[in-house]
Each structure stands twice: as structure tokens, then as C-alpha cells.
From TrEMBL:
Belongs to the HesA/MoeB/ThiF family. Residues 5-241 form the THIF-type NAD/FAD binding fold domain. GO terms for molecular function: nucleotidyltransferase activity; sulfotransferase activity; thiosulfate-cyanide sulfurtransferase activity; ubiquitin-like modifier activating enzyme activity. InterPro entries: ThiF/MoeB/HesA (IPR045886), ThiF_NAD_FAD-bd (IPR000594), Ubiquitin-activating_enz (IPR035985). PANTHER family: ADENYLYLTRANSFERASE AND SULFURTRANSFERASE MOCS3, UBIQUITIN-ACTIVATING ENZYME E1. It comes from the Bacteria. Pfam families: ThiF (PF00899). This is Thiamine/molybdopterin biosynthesis protein. GO terms for cellular component: cytosol.
Amino acid sequence: MIERYNRQVRYHQFGEHGQSQLQKTHVMIMGAGALGSHSAEMLVRMGVGSLTIIDMDIVELSNLHRQALYDELDAEKMLPKVEALKHKLNQINSNVEVTIINREITNLNIENLLTTYHPHIVIDGMDQFKIRYLINESCNKQNIPWIYGAAVGSKGTVYGIDDQGPCLKCLLETMPSTGESCAINGVLPPVIYQVASMQVSELMRWVSGEAFSKKLITIDCFNMQYKSMDISALKQSDCNVCEKHEYALLNDKYDAKIEKQCGDMFLLRFNADIFNHTDYLPVTIKKSNDFVKLLAYGSHEITLFKDGRMNIYGVENEGEAKNIYRTIAKSLS
């Protein structure tokens, strides 16, 4: 088996010890989009022990320019990303155990996911700051190291976080209320590859016993800029998370039924029963499978997931989203 990985084993700072530790490591990847899918592919090719991958979305054509391993057939079938990804990963390396969870990550379930699956380390493949702050709190609480990664436009950022800090809360005390997104600002594929590669590089340091670099890495693939900055001094002695161990987001058990997403999309949450009762809804079913249904509601397109989540596109404001939610809820009563 070691022959399969001998090119990376020959690198002396990683070596046989690093490979041995990698093959004992259980990595949880939160998000199977651009960063998550590339990280998963690299780790499986390198011979990681096991992967648990969590994601709630399906493959769409707009994903294919930057998200690894997915293809047009996956998009045509509206396959969940985790299902499509596991199939491809198993073809690359059948020796790696890949567990998939087709589920939204929220403040209500993230702790249970960590305590149920017991990863040694977490890789961030998410695209929203709220989820990253949840990862920061839950990993700190469970004493699990994690690797932050973000990419939008031509720019990317990577930072490995352990119990010594500084944590994400130290770096960004206030969660950004607005921010750039791929849906609005676009993203260039090379920065995705670079950020995912640096996330996996931090993981390689960690498994080989070198620990995280403790550097905030920033990349601009279009302007050909790369910066690596030691941010140990940014550790906050009174940080609510890594010093006081106060977990405001984890302790907030409010379950939002209507949530603004990127662009003109709103996420509505219903009970899972709605998936089997679409005949009662004022919609037209355009396409469906066991995981998702593509619906039309007036001029709006809707993606309805098996767990009751509903993405509605073309919604201008929260007031319109609330009206749609009330109309659909009333049709079910």
C-alpha cells in the first residue's frame, strides 16, 4: 500500500510517519462545494483514513466550472453533492472510508454531528460566515482543530485554528453582516484550487506533527499576490470563545423559518412531510427524484429538498418571502 503513496512519502518532512498518521486520521469536511470537493479529492488520493462529508445541496450546472469531480450528468439528475462526490471518490481510492451526510448544518445539529462522528479534524468548505462562527464555537467546545478557508472573486484566505488560538472570533470579533459571495461577485476557479490546496497543506503539517503554521494566508490569483502573516499577536485575552468558552450561537436554539441567502434567493424551512405532499401546494412539479423536487410557483423557481428545506429564487425582499411562506403553509393546513 505504501507504494501507492511513495511520492509523498519521499518528502522527508512528511515521510512514512506522516503517511501513517494520515491513514489513521478521520477528517470531517463541512460543505461539498468548491473548497470541500477539491479537499476531499486531494485527501482521498493521498490516502486519508476516513472522510465524513456533510452538505445539503444538489449539483447544478453553475457549479461545474469550479467544483471538482461533478459532471453534467450529475446536474441533469439533480443528485445531492454528497451522493455524486462519494461515487467519484470511491472510484479514485476504494481503500478510503467515505461517509456522507445529506443535511443542512445548523446551530441545532452541529454539536451532535461532531459528537456522533468524532472527527480528528474539520475542514471548512462553507460559504457563509454564520456557519463558520458555528464551526469555531463547536470545535472549540469539543477541542477539535479546524481549518478555515474562504474564496471569492480572485481572493482567498486560509488559517488553521487549534485550541491555542487565536480563533476566528479573535480575528473577527463581530460577524460580518454583509459580505461578498460567489453568486454576486463571482469566483475564479484557480483561487479555489489554491485555497483548498493550502487547507490540505495545513492538514499535512498537522498530521505529521509539525502543527499548524499559525499564519494567515491570503491569495489573489488574478493579481498574482500571496501573503503569509503571523497573527499570533491577534490572540484576544478576553475572547468569548477560546478564552471564556461562551458559545452564543450554539446556545441560541432559535430555528429561523425564513432566511436570506446569496443573491435573490430565500431559504424557507418546513417540516419534512411537505416533500410527500406537494400535490397540496400551489405549484407545478417540473422535475423530481428521491432527494429533491424542482417546482414552479408563478414566476419563481423552487428547489424543495427531502428534509423540508425550500430554496425560492427571484424573491426581491423578506416581505415577499414571508407572503410566499404563509401561502404555502396555509395550503398544507
